[in-house]
Specification:
The protein has helices at about 25-40, 55-60, 80-95, 145-150, 170-175, 180-185, 210-220; strands at about 45-50, 75, 95-100, 115-120, 125-130, 135-140, 195, 205, 230. It has seven helices and nine strands; from the N terminus they run αβαβαββββαααββαβ. It is about 25% helix and about 15% strand. The protein is globular and about 50 Å long. By secondary structure, the protein is α/β, with parallel strands linked by helices. Strands 1-2-4-3 form a four-stranded mixed sheet.
C-alpha cells in the first residue's frame, strides 16, 4: 500500500490553498486520511491514542470511575457487524491483541489493556423477538433491562443481570448469573445459537449442531473468549 495523501481541501477548483474550510469538512477529510493510513474504513467512530476524543472513549469504556491505567492503541465504536469483521481482520494484520467491550460492567475493567485494539460493541443493541417460537436474538451491547422490556410486550422473560445496564454480551460470556437463576439455571444455558467472528475474520453461527465446541466455549468462557460475539439467540 502506497503512502496515503494528507487531507486535501483543494479539490474544489474555486477553493485556493489557504482558504478557510468548514470544520465539518476538515474532520471528515481527517477521518478518511486516518482510515486510509490504517488501510480500512469503518461506519463507526475510530479513536487513535493521542488524538482528540481518545481519552473520553477510553474512560467511557468502564461503567464506574475505576478506569484502569491502561491505554489501547485503537478504540472503535462499532456501528454494525461489518465493522466488527473489519476490526478483527485489522487487528490480525497489525499484530494487535483485540479486546472487546459490550457494556463495560467489568469491575476490573479487564477489557482495557495496553497496546491493544479495543472493539466497543455498546452501540450494537438491536433485539428481534419471535413470540411464536418464544425466542429472541439480541446484539451484545443490548442492556438486559432493555431486552426484558421488549420481551414483556410478548409476555416473555429472560433471566438477565441484576443490575440495569449490564449488557447481554459480556453477561452471557461470563455464564449469566441473573434473576431466578435457581429456577432457570445460568442464562447462557438458554442460548441456542451464537453469531460470532472467528480470529480469521469469518462470521459464522454456532450451535449444538454447527461448531458445537465453539458453542460450548462461548457459554461461560468470560473475557478470554477467542472470538467476537455479535448476537445471541
Amino acid at each position: 500500500m502506497g503512502q496515503a495523501a494528507r487531507p486535501a481541501f483543494t479539490q474544489d477548483p474555486e477553493r485556493r490553498v489557504g482558504d478557510m474550510v468548514p470544520f465539518g469538512d476538515y474532520l471528515l477529510s481527517l477521518f478518511h486520511y486516518r482510515c486510509s493510513v490504517l488501510g480500512v474504513s469503518f461506519d463507526g467512530e475510530l479513536f487513535v491514542r493521542g488524538e482528540a476524543g481518545y481519552e473520553n472513549a477510553r474512560q467511557g469504556a468502564v461503567w464506574n470511575a475505576l478506569t484502569p491505567d491502561c491505554y489501547p492503541e485503537l478504540i472503535l465504536w462499532a456501528a454494525n457487524e461489518a465493522d466488527c469483521v473489519a476490526a478483527v481482520k485489522l487487528a490480525r494484520e497489525r499484530g494487535l491483541m483485540l479486546s472487546v467491550r459490550s457494556g463495560g460492567h467489568s469491575g476490573a475493567g479487564n477489557h482495557l489493556r495496553d497496546d491493544t485494539f479495543l472493539l466497543d460493541l455498546s452501540g450494537l443493541r438491536e433485539v428481534e423477538v419471535d413470540a411464536e417460537s418464544m425466542r429472541a436474538s439480541a446484539q451484545p451491547g443490548c442492556p438486559g433491562n432493555e431486552l426484558d422490556l421488549e420481551l414483556e410486550k410478548h409476555d416473555l422473560f429472560f433471566p438477565v443481570g441484576h443490575c440495569p445496564g449490564v449488557a447481554i454480551g459480556g453477561y452471557l460470556l461470563q455464564g449469566g448469573f441473573g434473576w431466578n437463576d435457581r429456577v432457570h439455571g445460568l442464562a447462557c444455558q438458554s442460548a441456542v445459537a451464537i453469531d460470532l467472528i472467528t480470529p480469521q475474520g469469518e462470521l459464522i453461527t454456532v450451535s449444538e449442531e454447527n461448531e458445537p465446541d465453539l458453542f460450548w466455549a462461548a457459554r461461560g468462557s468470560g473475557p478470554g473468549f477467542f472470538s467476537v460475539v455479535t448476537a445471541t439467540t
